[in-house]
Design brief:
Blueprint lengths: L4 E5 L5 H6 L7 H10 L4 E4 L9 H9 L6 E5 L16 H4 L15 H14 L1 H5 L3 E7 L8 H13 L4 E5 L11 H10 L3 E6 L19 E6 L4 H4 L6 H4 L6 H5 L2 H10 L2 E6 L4 E4 L2 E4 H15 L12
Parallel strand pairs: 1-8, 2-3, 3-4, 4-5, 5-6, 6-7, 7-8
Antiparallel strand pairs: 9-10
Length: 314
Amino acid sequence: MAAPIRIGTCSWADESLTRYFYPPGVKGAEERLRYYADRFDTVEANSTYYRLPDEEMVRRWHERTPEGFVMHVKAFGVMTRHPVKLEQLPPDLREGAPVDERGRVDRPPREFRAEVFRRFHSALEPLRLNDKLGGILMQFPPYVVFKPASLEYLEWAQEQLGGDEMLVEFRHASWLAEENRPETLAFLERNHMSYVIVDAPRTQARNVSPTVVATTTPTAYVRYHGRNAETWNKRVRSAAERFDYLYSEEELGEWVAPLAELSGQADNVYAMFNNNGRSETPQGDIAQAPVNAQMLRGLLEREGLPVTPAPAPT
């Protein structure tokens, strides 16, 4: 039996959504999340990439979403070896943290990272207890390349997640290059790590992972970053500029067959939109991610694929 496809966005609080998705009367964190959850049944929490979550905040996420809602949580930057400014750490972890000349946490010891993982895991308990926690998105930076040390880090990181599902997204082409692809996917499958499929600019840049449709666990997970090659490596002020792209219906139509294939292979299928800019249309400015998410839903429904129904707005 084919698995239903859940469709959502990679944030519910990006500026494009707060300005162009929510009606003027929907203000504040609580109203926005409730409004979002009336229209989609899954989302990624991406604020956790910038700051460690705390349990009270996560409890509010649970309280503001209905039963059956699934929230995936993006790992804090320290967990995926990204540069993190000292002030992004909890105050008690700042003292003694190794920093570089730019004030960024620089190659902290494993014990330090382990404590970050421990706090992250503990904070998510309200979602976990109420069956709303999806996967932990481990999006690795381009300088984490395919090599034995990187494989070892993935194994160690998974141990720190304490049984939560690990969603692995690569940002360097070496992982899925033809000579490494079989070993990468076999490694993920052997270690029960869920491979993240990406739709991104069609370029030969080494920091763009090719689109490879595959699964390594019962979870199929697709992230749509947009195809704006011009801004991908440009020095920009925000992620909204880098992922500024509105998919056409034709481009999303390319995903009907792959999603049908994934639906037949996996137990859980997620299609998540990370194109978080805005577009001008004759009807006015729109937020790209939710518009494309709704567009994909319509395409899949017309093809008779099993899509989780949009919640009935309350």
